[in-house]
Amino acid sequence: MRKIEQIPALTFLAKSRQIYKNPLPFHRENFQKYGNTFKISPKPGLMIHFTCDEKITQHILQKNQKNFNKSTLQTEDLGKYIGHGLLTENGEKWRANRKLIQPAFYKKSISSLMRTMDEVIQEEFSKIKTDEAIDVYEVFNDLAFKVVARSLFDLADIDDLEEKISRLQFITEKAQKMLIKELRIPWMKWYFDREWLSGENSVPHALELIEEAREILRNIINNRRSSDREPGDLLDMLLHSTYEDGSYMEDDQLVDEILVLFIAGHETTANALSFAAQLLAHHPETIAKANKEISHLDNKDLMTGLMQMPYIKQCVDETLRMYPPAYVTDRVAIAADSCEDIAIAKGSIWLISFYEMHRRKDLWEDPEVFNPDRFAPDKAKAYRDFYFPFGAGPRMCVGNNFAVFEMILVIARMLERFEITPVHDSIDYHPLITLKPRNAQLLFKKKAATEN
Predict the structure, then answer these.
(1) What is the pLDDT of residues 224-259, one digit of tens each?
(2) Rounded Cα gap, residues 98 and 86, in angstroms
(3) Residue-wise pLDDT tens digits, 425-438
(4) 107 belongs to a structural domain
(5) pTM
(6) Which of 9, 204, 324, 373 is the most buried (most CB within 10 A)?
């Protein structure tokens, strides 16, 4: 079996400040130095294997996925902030809830939400200030959160909806920053756990905020129950669906699942849209090609219209290759295993870098270049073994189709209304729990046809 190179502890400690701010350059440096797999011990008793190897990834996420669970970094550390729902659970509990929730994201279900989704998108675009630099992440973050709120949960009749959404967004951001500190500086956990020492930057304060978010969602659930409304949205389905034994989902579990969908469902889409808009703005030739498809928005059936926009779909696919919102994931081996010439010890932790896999020069031609044509229908199948924008296997993101259709619709509506140009020469990012854009400023100008 091949020996996996280990990064010296002193090397890791010397670069801990850099890793805390942005771990991706550290990942790349060591993948280039040690190959597609290496390991590191960030603290005594903890060993993490890093890989961007496509065969190991397929083995862990697909071929032998039953032997790998999400690690405590997700089930416990992440779980305490966003609840114990689909994203953070393992085993039978995950399987039961996945089976219950999955039907809400079938194509037929998504199609019924398209008009509501489109209304939100057009409302948000009508607020954009033109002829001045704006941060598109702020635009898309608000847009994506409201799409989740109104398309999935039909909350248009909730009192103070805007205030509730703003508060949930604020709490999400604060909790994520606290979790990043815990994960990237694990030897400082004792400090963050003490509220008297670190005040608002403490774990206890962050958990108080999360409980506030959960209370907001409990009130939303209770409001729906007392209203006797049955609009057929995801919340309605969850309230009425039963497990195989005929039991209903308990309220605490329902809140956890909704919290995950609110947080994960909006932020990843907002991130991807922000990167997509910047990439298009930096490549006007791609906008010219995409503009040829936006006439299909006139189709009475929006879903049919979106299906007739293959190039815009290719732009989405290429964006997700270059800037996958879920840029890493991890698994822990339940039992001893092996893949190719790599031994996988029982209990070993494996962190998979989709970001690096999507940029490997031996897998992709000119991987640093934005080229939507690589995902043309006759070419896309060539990448299926090493292209994982939504993960892979049974735990692939449950809302992947919803997110893709939303992104196609947003891009089409944006190009229909505006001409976009970049403000900065390059695209910057900020890796938190998800890969977020930084300084994502663009200049929007109304198209002549929409000025009236």
Answers:
(1) 888 777 777 778 878 888 888 888 888 888 888 888
(2) 7
(3) 999 998 988 899 99
(4) yes
(5) 0.90
(6) 324
